[in-house]
Predict the structure.
Amino acid sequence: MSVLQLIRSYIFVAQMYLMLAVISICFLPVGVLGGRAGAVWVCRLYCNWVRVSARWIVGLRSEIRGTPPTGDVLIAAKHQSFFDILMIYSAVPRGRFIMKKELVWTPFVGWYAYLIGCIPVDRSKRGRAIKGMVDQALNDRQRGGQLIIFAQGTRVAPGAKPPYKIGPAMLYKDLGLPCVPAATNVGVFWPRRSMLRKPGLAVVEFFDPIAPGMETAEFMAQMSEVVESNSDRLMAEAGFDVSLGEQQSAG
């Protein structure tokens, strides 16, 4: 990748965080006075800004495939970078996340996470964290919308295969909601620990809902298979060889 692409990447990342501050502060009255709907509007504005500016500055296009859910559902998604968070949120009308507790104290992000009704989880508490997450989700059911959880519990590098966590199954069972699996390939273009942003087509794809009522083991098997196999397919489309754990050069 050229030095010019790296320079563009630094410019893109700098303006992305600058605009996070600008949009968060300028539209804070909308987020506070407009209730959850106002806060969601501000968050989606920022998500769409990043998607558009990624295309302009670094040549990273983004595409939503499948049918984004609009009703009350659980979304169990692959998580490879900050970009899939933004893409998923830009695609759904009333999203909120299961997120790590540390983000509550992050400037701007923490403000809006509170306003849209995200559920923080203290991952250091392990089993108690899962129970607390489920209890809060049950208490907040009246909020409705799309509750988004990352099925492997953290960002995952392309080609890595950590186990799927039990959290999605617990929410699926206790909330009695359909679960929409979501796959992605964004880590191929937006690495976890690099400033380089690569040109290409980042995709988030939604799949048919898994109806409520499955046993835990059956649900976990179906959900993880849909997410993992389709993420592998999308990464292969982007030129990433999952078996080798590396991106293949064009031509």
Observations:
- The helical segments are 3-26, 28-33, 35-58, 82-91, 109-116, 127-139, 167-175, 216-237.
- The first strand starts at residue 60 and ends at 65.
